[in-house]
Amino acid sequence: MFNVDIDTGGTMTDTLVSGGPQPLLIKVESTPHDVTVSFMQSLEAAATLAGAESLAQFLDQVALIRWSSTITSNVLAQRSGPKLGLIVSAGHEADLYADDPRHTAHVVPSLVRREHTVGLAANADRAVIVATLKGLIDQGIRRVNVSLAGAFPDGAREQEVLKIIGEQFPDHFLGSVPALAGSDMLMRPDDMSRTFFALINAYVHNSLANSLFKAEDLLKIDYRWKGDLLVGHLNGGVARIGKTKAVDTIESGPLFGTHASAFLAASQQLPKVLALDIGGTTAKASVVIDGRIEMRPDGHFFGIPVRMPMPVLRSIALGGGSVARAAEGAVTLGPDSMGAAPGPACYKLGGSSATLTDALVALGVISPLGFLEGRRVLDVAAAAGAITRQVGTPLALAAGPAAQQIMHRAVEMMAGLARDTLAEAGHPEPAGFVLFAYGGNGPLFATELADQLGIQEVRLFALGTVFSAYGSAIADVLHVYERALVSTDAANEIHGAAALLQAQAWRDLLGEGFEPQHAQLEWEVEDATGARAAATGESATSVPALLASLPKPVILRLTARFPIPKQPLPEQASAAHAPVASLRASPLVPGGELPVYTHATLFGQQLSGPLVVDGGTFTWYIGPRWQVTIDGRGDACVTRMKG
Fold it and tell me: How far, in Å, CA of 15 to CA of 64, rounded?
């Protein structure tokens, strides 16, 4: 049986199929107008590569599909969600419980307008609540959040308001109004974080739900598929659609690349790793120390602060589609991107703006004939023309030197991103770190970036172009449950709360078709300061000992992990003959010819740069003064040469 992992990005949709004699790597262009189109195109391409006669026949051999995407991230980043209404406690209509006006400014008016936020008195009766709601409906609001002060640990008042909304606008009528309580979304004593978290979830919910349910309907109804469609979560796990909150999926795709980095860093005993993911639209950096992803106590979702632990993940608007221009005698890149459509000028699909991809084509780093395994031929002349027009002529440079300036500007931006990420994680100096570079464009800049940062070692991966899909392929089903402890010295309440969480985990796993007795449970308690204590156990009996380790625990948390069997990823096939380089015209090297090697010929080989490695679905650029060694899996260790 096959497992299929699909990661839908802003420009490319990456797929990894495991379970066959060789892992299958598939890249198709994303379809932002309807991401289910590229989702199904990926499956159709997988069926062809697997030798199936039809997609239906291929799906009969697929046990599960794990899907991560940037759907929710894009909606939040672009602030393209629906109109929301918000009911808060009277007196907090303007500040939304934030103690810093700058925090509120990230939410108002981009997520919720000031006029769509109303205050509710503590003693408001049913008539007042109904009138408040009708006032929002009259303004065109069709989704309401209720977040009242002090709803942690007791959210009873919020639930009372939700009940009235449900009775007044029941869901079996066309005029139903979906309503969400902050206390249902985040078990935190911080009123601001609960409010913001609930707003984010409501804001991105529709876009994700529409795509997921459409994809599931296509699979289950049109193709009668009986496998499991699991959705990638920010915590590195996956879950069924019915057990997924939209906010759980924000940045889940990029974080799967970080989880893959952590897995490989631990297995290879690399203590300090800087992970860099560069795609078609964005560049993202994260940090792994001793095999664990570096976290920060207070995080944010695209500028919206939430006081809860989150991975250190920084991003900038820089990718292959980033538009290059000349301004004030220098090169600028982005933040606008040509995306997959119309794409860079070299695509010849109507895009006339010079992009980072055009520069890489003009420099001979990207093959004009081998792009997307030869499915698209790139126009070198169109790339050079756009570069000359937008960058070369304003800076009095020919196309080649102008393309080099674009590449250098990209490296400068990446170096700034890397330094900022390391500093946020508490590691201001890059010295001693190993750079993991992946994504479609990461390996094209790895050695240049390492030169800028003073890093001595780089790792590149045969699965690097689908690295987030690889992180998904090693993911387990993961559910997290929380409950507030009102009285931490009442044994009955403590045991009762733990038993309820465990029962809920058992019920959810059974409902998803998993055997709960095989789940791994981790119990955790957290006090008001954020201090934690954790223990792994098979039942709620672990909880009392944890409570004794913290003075005033207020949150009881259960993480239920159901391990999914990992399909083996065999070593990729290597060619029997010795490596032979072709030469490609390039302004990057003296003499203008850059050696290009076929990846399958390099297993067990060691070469010195400058050179390009062409893997069909991926390309690596190894700069001067760097030496690359390819292992039996096709992965590369690249080290700076001495002298």
Answer: 13
